[in-house]
Amino acid sequence: MRIVVCPDSFKGSLSAIQVATIIKNAFHEVDETIIVDCVPIADGGEGTIDAFSASIGGELRVVIVQNPMMERIEAGYLVLPDGTCVIEMAQSTGLHLVKEELRNPLVATSYGMGEMVRHALDAGGRKFVVGIGGSATNDGGYGLLRALGMRFFDEHGKELAEDVLALQKLAHIDTSEFDERISESTWDIACDVDNPLLGENGATLVFGPQKGVTKDIHMQLEQALAQLSEVVAKQVGNAVHEVPGAGAAGGVGMALLAYFPATLKRGIDVVSTTTGLAEKIARADYVITGEGYSDRQTLNGKAPLGIAKLAKEQQIPVALLSGKVAGGSIHALHSHFTIIMAAADEQMSTAFAMDNAEDLLFAKAKKLAQQLRETL
User: Fold this and answer.
1) Does the CA dihedral 326-328-334-339 come out positive or negative?
2) Contacts with 335 (C-beta within 8 Å, 6 or more apart), sequence order
3) d(CA 351, CA 164)
4) How far apart are CA 79 and CA 62, in angstroms?
5) Is residue 232 part of a domain?
6) Other beta carbons within 10 Å of 34
7) Same domain? 289 vs 253
8) Is the domain of 294 the same as that of 240?
9) Which domain, by its residues, includes 369?
10) Dist. CA 355–CA 367, nearest whole Å
11) pLDDT given at position 231
């Protein structure tokens, strides 16, 4: 029996790699002859590099860049065996890098991500996979673009300050020194967000609060990004800020769409293409996926649904093994998953479930292994 295990992380308790390893160990305790291929997946946020490394290996390169608050830190990107560079934005500008009480979206910059890109280009990278989830920034990619050579001016020809609100005075973007190697490279962007940049469903209103955006500064940030988007749209001849995904990572999505030969893709599609996941699924008898909490939102494009669709194309059955599963969603989930299990009962407190996630998952994975051994 061959099983492919491709879970997302159980956020707050277990990484995708840990989840996959626990399931693999549980299956081997039941039957050592079961072949288990682990392909941990990620949505482009924190853990993306680890997921790729665990699946196909590669070389981690550590560089010194700015974090969101302009402090120098070590961050890494992964070079896959075929030379593809996997850049995880969260490594340089992740929300987890800034203590909650210090988060300041007026200062937070995506500059470090640009430094990471430049390092990879200097090292010869020309094929890129970029995950843009989990950022602490709301700067529309202002820092990213400055790090790669762009300059921003007001109507009097004075170069703007580095803070986000300076964009309210933006009149002209000089791209003459923008790194020309970017146009010579390929860019697949892992992005599971379809928000535009502005408005009720935009970056500032939807994602800003977790980054420190308050009611007092919301309108100022919105005006700054609106001015940036207007100048960008005139320059590139396209209202790129309205494209689904432009609001990802506080507007970095817009910057990539406007100035990179980039394609925004669902995280699962990027993982599948890069790791050969579809080919591995085709050889399997069963596929196991999961996430921290599954409910009806799982069917709105989350990673387990992407796995289910890949498996369906190959007519391979799929089990959903998540941390918790909402009872009212089970009927809807069964339209995509043959078996549905939760490591923790729905009545169990979240705190207890997270504190005991490893043991709970191992026990339930053993039950799943026993069930599959009896039926396959």
Assistant:
1) positive
2) none
3) 37
4) 11
5) yes
6) 18
7) no
8) no
9) 2-40+285-375
10) 21
11) 98
Q: What pLDDT, in 10s, does the model give residues 264-285? A: 998 888 888 888 899 999 999 9
Same domain, 138 and 171: yes
In a domain, 273, yes or no: no
Among 211, 209, 243, 246, CA closest to 225:
246
Q: Are 318 and 263 in the same domain?
A: no
**Does residue 318 lie in a domain region?**
yes
Q: Is the pLDDT of residue 376 over 90?
A: no
Q: How many angstroms separate the CA atoms of 96 and 89, rounded?
A: 12
Q: Are residues 83 and 129 in the same domain?
A: yes
* CATH number for the domain harbouring residue 23: 3.40.50.10350
CB 298 within 8 A of CB 304: yes
* CA-closest candidate to residue 130, choices 141, 138, 162: 141
Q: Give the pLDDT score at 101.
A: 92
Question: Per residue in 142-168, pLDDT tens?
Answer: 999 999 999 999 999 999 999 999 999
Distance in angstroms (rounded) separating the CA atoms of residues 53 and 271: 11
pTM, two decimals, is 0.88
Kindly report, residue by residue over 203-226, the tens digit of the pLDDT. Answer: 999 999 999 999 999 999 999 999
What's the structural domain count of the chain?
2
Contact 171, 231 (CB under 8 A): yes
291 and 341, same domain (yes or no) = yes
d(CA 332, CA 320): 13
Q: Model confidence at 4, in pLDDT bands (50, 70, 90)? A: very high
- Angle formed at CA 258 by CA 121 and CA 167, multiple of 5 degrees: 100
Q: How many other CB atoms sit within 10 Å of the CB of residue 334?
A: 12
CA distance 254 to 116: 18
| Gap between the Cα atoms of 365 and 320, Å rounded | 11
At residue 44 the predicted structure's pLDDT band, cuts being 50, 70 and 90, is confident
Nearest partner of 367 among 11, 18, 30, 99, judged by Cα = 30
Is the residue at 279 inside a domain?
Answer: no
